[in-house]
């Protein structure tokens, strides 16, 4: 029987525990989001993050920069938030409009407030095995694996995708947890054979129903990061109905990795507030 890795209910449980921890701490953590432009998906993600803040007792501030803003304008907003002692976490919603230099903006975030974990310092610490803030999606996946007592140490893990926000930090977190890790990408030769090696398969390609049963080792744990539209429906990278017949455990889309990402952002923001407390 396949186990459905229910990120929704695990995230609900984690948010409740976090709410208690924040209440007991006497702290009032605050998260600031920066959004540039009016991309509907980005607006929706930011709204979900603000709602989660409200639920656990984290204050939130939303900074909206016009879509035609320059890199300097976005940098000004980040710099104000860096200086604001009442703000513990800063999240710049990506993607930024094409004319904005995303790398400069990410590198401008105060590393003590980098709750998204995309700053080169945060990624460097993660790579060196001493993470401070790990990116929320892969960190949330590690939490989900732990909540279901899925052994990672010694497992063969294969990650499809090498982005800075998911694939690369996912591989680093799995390596830090003693998995043997392969990263695949669009130039990987014989991808199916690589993926079939995986005890833990993480797909973050952004290709709807790309992962089929032939690519999955029987009994593998399959983590689907993808958020894709297919015939007007939200689907993952994994052909869920077919792959669940061969996997031992699998995340659904929606309700798998997505809610874990938001819960982890809340946990990172509280951790940032605790770190700031003398
Ligand atoms: N659930 C969540 O919370 C969450 C969070 C973040 C992202 N996502 C979703 O996860 C997906 C990936 O996001 P991302 O930001 O990592 O995307 P991305 O930056 O577009 O990266 C996609 C990666 O997949 C690889 N890839 C694409 N086609 C491939 C193929 N045919 N074979 C093998 N590898 C292939 C690319 O390889 P190259 O490097 O060679 O181009 C790239 O490394 C998207 O659907 C996104 O919406 C979900």
Give a structural overview.
- The structure is a single chain.
- The chain folds into 2 domains: 88 residues, 3-Layer(aba) Sandwich (Rossmann fold); 123 residues, 3-Layer(aba) Sandwich (Rossmann fold), CATH 3.40.50.720.
- 41% of the residues lie in helices and 17% in strands.
- The protein contains 10 helices and 11 strands.
- The protein has a 6-stranded parallel β-sheet with strand order 1-11-8-7-5-6. A 3-stranded parallel β-sheet has the order 3-2-4, with helices on both faces.
- Strand 2, helix 2 and strand 3 form a beta-alpha-beta unit.
- The mean pLDDT is 97.
- Bound molecules: NADP nicotinamide-adenine-dinucleotide phosphate.
- NADP nicotinamide-adenine-dinucleotide phosphate binds next to helix 10.
CA-based shape: globular
CATH topology of the largest domain: Rossmann fold
Low-confidence stretches: none
User: In whole angstroms, how far apart are the ends?
Assistant: 49 Å
CATH architecture of the largest domain: 3-Layer(aba) Sandwich
Task: Write a concise synopsis of the structure shown.
The protein is of the alpha/beta class and about 280 residues long.
Annotation keywords:
Rossmann fold, 2 domains, six-stranded parallel β-sheet, 278 residues, binds NADP nicotinamide-adenine-dinucleotide phosphate, 17% strand, three-stranded parallel β-sheet, 41% helix
């Amino acid at each position: 029987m396949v186990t459905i890795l229910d990120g929704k209910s695990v995230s609900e449980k984690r948010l409740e525990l976090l709410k208690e921890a924040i209440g007991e701490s006497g702290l009032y953590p605050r998260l600031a989001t920066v959004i540039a432009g009016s991309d509907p998906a980005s607006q929706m993600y930011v709204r979900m993050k603000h709602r989660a803040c409200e639920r656990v007792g984290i204050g939130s501030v939303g900074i909206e920069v016009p879509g035609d803003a320059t890199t300097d304008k976005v940098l000004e907003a980040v710099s104000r938030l860096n200086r604001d002692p009442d703000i513990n976490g800063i999240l710049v919603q990506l993607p930024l409009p094409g004319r904005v230099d995303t790398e400069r903006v990410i590198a401008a975030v105060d590393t003590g407030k980098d709750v998204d974990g995309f700053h080169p310092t945060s990624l460097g610490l993660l790579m060196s095995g001493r993470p401070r803030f790990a990116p929320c999606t892969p960190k949330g996946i590690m939490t989900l694996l732990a909540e279901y007592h899925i052994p990672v140490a010694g497992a063969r893990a294969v990650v499809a995708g090498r982005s800075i926000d998911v694939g690369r930090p996912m591989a680093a977190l799995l390596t830090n947890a003693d998995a043997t890790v392969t990263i695949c990408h669009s130039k990987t030769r014989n991808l199916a054979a690589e993926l079939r090696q995986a005890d833990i398969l993480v797909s973050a390609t952004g290709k709807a129903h790309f992962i089929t049963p032939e690519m999955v080792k029987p009994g593998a744990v399959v983590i689907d990061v993808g958020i894709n539209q297919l015939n007007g429906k939200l689907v993952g990278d994994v052909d869920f109905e077919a792959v669940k017949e061969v996997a031992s455990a699998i995340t659904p889309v929606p309700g798998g990795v997505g809610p874990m990402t938001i819960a982890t952002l809340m946990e990172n923001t509280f951790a940032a507030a605790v770190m700031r407390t003398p």
